[in-house]
Each structure stands twice: as structure tokens, then as C-alpha cells.
Write a structure and sequence with these properties.
The chain has about 140 residues and is α+β, with helices and mostly antiparallel strands. It is built from six helices and seven strands; from the N terminus they run E-E-H-E-E-E-H-E-E-H-H-H-H. The strands form two sheets. It has a five-stranded mixed beta sheet with strand order 1-2-5-4-3.
Length: about 140
Amino acid sequence: NRRGGDGRPRILVAAQRREAFVDVLRQLGFEPFHEASAFGNYMREDGRRVDALYARSALGQGMLERACKESLGDVALSVIAAEDLIGLKLQALANDPRRYRDWGDIRGILDLRRDEINMQRVRDYFGLFGFHEELERLLAHQ
């Protein structure tokens, strides 16, 4: 679970747990306003919104397996690794290049976590989405 630049929770959910996840959201007053096979957007009457990505691929499943377990009161959460968050942001950029703020988020993650993240995985994500040159530019400015 991470929050996007707009403050909305972004949640990565195993695809096979989608129905249970949506049931919990409905119990909390959220209703879907857009759903697709890979993601869903849910909103409450008070305007609060949750965006979910449904991990179907081996890549997404790997992110969930590497996630560290945290708790928020009585709620257990799995928080994905910083390099996996970079991977999700790169995927979003590949899908919509107008998401400029994601580059700033990626730069911030690299600045804050450079010594603790798996740089090979970061390089793999940049390569997967065709952003080799952008990674070299980001690293040159650190």
C-alpha cells in the first residue's frame, strides 16, 4: 500500500483475492466507479477514493511475495519494496507518458533509498519498459 502524489491510497492486490478485497471496500462504503481486469477505482460518498492494481503476472506476484509485512492497528498490510514501486511507476509511465510527476517520484525514491534498494531490479524495470537512457540520466544527477 502506497499513496500516490494526490494522497489517494494505491493498493496492489493479488488477482485471486480481488473479490474479497472489493467486499471489504464495500463494507467500508466504497463503490466501484471504474473497473478493468488489471485495476479498479473505488469511491465513497464523502469523496475518499482508493485505487487498486490487481497482480496477475509473475512480475506482480513477485512484488507481493517480496513485500514486507506491516500493521496499522489491527490491519495487516504488505508494503512493496521501493524498487517495485519504481517498477509500477515505470509501467504507469509506459502506459501514459503524460504522468510527468512519476519521474519526480522515481527520482525521490532513488535519492532517499539508493543505498538500500536492489539496483539490479531497478535496472531490469527500466529495461523492461524501455527507459534505459532515463535511468542513466537520473543516476548521473545524484
